[in-house]
Amino acid sequence: MRISSLTSLALLGTVYALPTLILPWFGHIQLDSLLNGLSYSHSHAEKTIYQILKEDENFSRLVKAIELNEKVVEFLDDPTQSVTFFAVPNSGLPRRRRHHEKEEDVYHAKPINDLEHLILQVEQLDHLSDSEGGEKCKERLAHFVHRVLAYHTLPEKLTSAQLHENSTYATKLILKDGSFDRQPQRISVQSKILPPSLKINFYASVTGRDIEASNGVIHHITRPLLPPPSIFQEAFLFPQAFSYVTSAIQRVHLTGAVDRWRVPEEDDEHGGFHGATATTFFAPTAAAFHHLPKKLQLFLFSPIGERALKKLLEFHIIPNFVLFSDYVHNATSEESARTDLTSDLRAARYHANLPGLLVAPFDDSMLEPPREKHIPVPEPTHEYNYTLPTLLTNHSVHVNVAHYVAKLPFHDGVRSFTKFTVNGIPVFPLDVPARNGALQVIHKLLNPRRKRGHHDHDHDHDHEHERVTEDEVDASWDDWEEWLPQWALEN
What we know:
By secondary structure, the protein is an alpha+beta fold. The protein has helices at 6-12, 32-36, 49-54, 60-66, 70-76, 115-124, 134-150, 160-163, 231-236, 239-251, 255-258, 286-290, 294-300, 306-314, 480-489; strands spanning 21-23, 27-29, 42-44, 83-87, 153-154, 168-170, 186-192, 197-200, 204-205, 211-213, 216-220, 260-262, 273-275, 279-284, 317-319, 321-324, 327-330, 338-340, 382-389, 396-407, 414-422, 425-426, 432-434, 437-442. Helix 6 (115-124) packs antiparallel against helix 7.
């Protein structure tokens, strides 16, 4: 539900259409005037999305998968729709198997969230007869096609310039197992200024933009979009960045607070999936642990420090609440359960406190903190604040998201950027979508004893005091021996 009235904005907080262009010192930047000039738009306004793809040989393999499911064909060929579809050309898919190479097992196929392998299995159906189980395999793969392509579809028509307006978007994929509290799975949008580029979920580049159809718009992407795994499984894909925290989570038996997994022996309709359904995890990187005093590192990962480690990790987990920089979902609230935090330029500033594994083609380098420069920033045009209860009883964190707009030197250039902090610590990269919520990356460990109110923004200093150089020890933990062991024993 998008916020469209100032009354709703006053209740829920707001941030203007969030930027997505990454600069090392400003975070995310939006340059509509530049992007509009490089949109590569094409018009086939009299044809549907399905008809456009069907007539283009470059998408023959994708079309073959689409045609396996009649409902998908009907949807993409329906002139009354108005949607966005991310289409993968043949060049973005793995080559077909040769006869002497091992084929995918289409007879005993497990649930597939990967369009690449899905299409390979679809192509093998040509070699199966009905007597060999071809029809049964077809029905099973058709179900997977519907689910995976739903994640490639947005329920509204959005041009490439419009995609730059927010950080995340809802897709057509809703998982019936309760993940994400049965709300639509989301994609994340990123872009760069030089060279101008647009990416989805950090790895799929948008190449052909704004192909107009009678029922929406098509954007070509270089790789298929993978419906994301759970928060824990996603962190596990980045051992260089998250090896400390994933090991720590398993060590103190908190996996169920951030993971969501299927138990094959059980019926899907009766608890086949276990774990957290809707969660936000402020995930500290390995650097966050490296910055702790050496003695504290040894204490936390020793048997006597296990209780302290568990409580610290609980302080980083927001249960039953999904928080992106432009979207919140409170799984415990019946009213206003889901909200897109967007507004127009006329909106004022508001503050609100709410009550209380597939291998993706990612790169660990995307999780490295930006090279910060101290550059004065203007007053935010829009911002919102949340005080959110954590998994650790009687402990909350304060989140601030502020949006800024500044003029660029060239004609009509506008620079928009967003700062997202938790307890004053910058979040970067922000808005990593997961099956069961949001993964927000931080490069310092949250200190439960460091009180920072949600009105302490310190915009002018740009959180200079929060930065830690590569080899520097985080001074906020210097006195840990005076309080942490005792705090860990408290109920």
